[in-house]
Amino acid sequence: MRISNAIVESSDDAIISKDGHGIIASWNRGAEKIFGYSEEEIIGQSITLIIPSERLHEEAEILNKISSGQKVDHFVTQRKHKNGQLIDLSVSISPIYNSEGQVIGASKIARDISAAVAAEAEIKRLAFYDSLTGLANRRLLQERLGQLLLSAKRDKFPIVLMYIDLDDFKLLNDTQGHEAGDHLLKAVSNRLIESVRDSDTVCRFGGDEFLIILSGRNQIFSSDAWVKKIGKKIRERLSYPYDLGAEPYICTSSIGAYIHKGEKLSSDEIINKADQAMYIAKKKKNAFYLVSGNYAYD
Fold it and tell me: Does the annotation mark 208 as catalytic?
């Protein structure tokens, strides 16, 4: 018995027991470490003390399973620290029986997996977001554009794609170094985010090229006049001086836009349309050029 107690107390996992009503009966040092409550504070309290309000339904489901003699293995969930912080946990729960074989409670082993969950989230973030600017990357843009195409086909609304290229960015890198170039890219990213709505997607497509998907479910917000107005606003905002060193740096941009109106085009073909419009703008330098598709919805 002493050996068993020693194992429980030395475990980094939370090992907890509760009665059939969810009242805590035992609480090891691992539980103290994970949840912040001492044994004296928590014994006799309801297990719901450490369950976030939006997850209280889980306890009823767990009690129903336990009361019928079922186990719960490696259930990934969140519980609440004494300070209110949410903790990612992997939980296994087993019924406790009396001498007559009746279920009288449950024993729980909870392992803190916060570090693993955070690492997985970071891997996903790096897969879909640009590491320098924090913007959506090429992969996420293509995924969102593909989803939007399906919605547009169903609900018959236009899609606006803007393709932005910074003028003379290579010259900046060559003369002032990559650190200055990175600083400019981050500043440009912030200005682009400030220029559009939360529902729009701003993407760093690669190098000094950015793409913006403008959600156009409302016809007003995808008309030629509206798109030109937004393009002009973005181009003007990007041309304001940047603080990159001793002297303010002026960066102009060339912007091409394409309004998709139901033509049978893939995501890549729509991107190419916007790219072609951008190259026309780039020939003029510091310009905006719009290509508006033909309305092709039935």
Answer: yes
